[in-house]
Amino acid sequence: MPPAFHGQDFPYTFYTGPNNRVANGTAAIIHQKFITNYVIHGEPGCEQGACFPRYGSGKNALSMNVSEIKVVKDPWATERCDFLVSLMEFS
Asked: What is the pLDDT of residue 61?
């Protein structure tokens, strides 16, 4: 969740109800469901019409903020990332 610095998603990850550190409770619940689905099923799955894409040649990522969830092209995709992704294909 924005501003998405390391650790600032903590209130969303451990959301238990309304508080002043979470701007959108629904976004927090969706965030938790993605994490829970990944732990239980090995993939984040879909929540409320937003499907967490598998990263690969399409360089798709999920953009989440307090007002929308959408699939976007990874703005940080570089040749280095391509190399790391190619290593995963052989494992």
From this structure: 85
Contact partners, residue 26, CB within 8 Å, separation at least 6: 48
Helix%, strand%, coil% for the chain, nearest 5: 35, 15, 50
Neighbours of 30 (CB within 10 A): 18
- Residue 75: name the closest of 59, 87, 88 by CA: 59
Say if residues 1 and 64 touch (Cβ distance below 8 Å).
yes
The set of residues, in sequence order, having a beta carbon less than 8 Å from that of 44 and lying 6+ positions away, is 34, 35, 37, 38, 52
Query: Is residue 24 predicted with pLDDT exceeding 80?
Result: yes
The residues near 81 (Cβ < 8 Å, ≥ 6 apart) are: 59, 74
Question: What residues does each domain of the chain span?
Answer: 10-89
Nearest CA to 23 out of 6, 5, 1 is that of 1
Share of the chain above pLDDT 90, in %: 24
